[in-house]
Fold this sequence. Notes:
The chain has 126 residues and is mostly beta strands. It has two helices and eight strands, in the order αβββββαβββ.
Amino acid sequence: MFNVIKERKLEGIVAKQKSGVYVGRRSESWQKIINYTYADVYISGYLKNQFGWLVEYNGRPAGIIEFDSTVPAAQKQAFYSVARKLVTGEDRNFVYVEPMIEARVRFRNWTKSGKMRSPEFVGFTV
């Protein structure tokens, strides 16, 4: 069944333990199995006051990697040491960099406005 989900490019499927009962909240009896999409993006900036990397896909803004816990500390340190040399400008919230640092992300699907839904860092590409 999950292969059909993938073929149709659907977000995923919800599965329930056979013995599980319905409850009106999250439960261990119910699991969401996500059909992630993967893409290579360029990081074009970062948030000033909290973690967040702006990403571009095919030269267009595609979203913000905001899940701090998905990026290992060593990867963050490597990014900021290189990004410091690539700064092109800034505004109240963001520092913008030349989009030269490429990363692999996984995300749930594309929004109607062409943004990645919940992008998560997988690793840098070389």
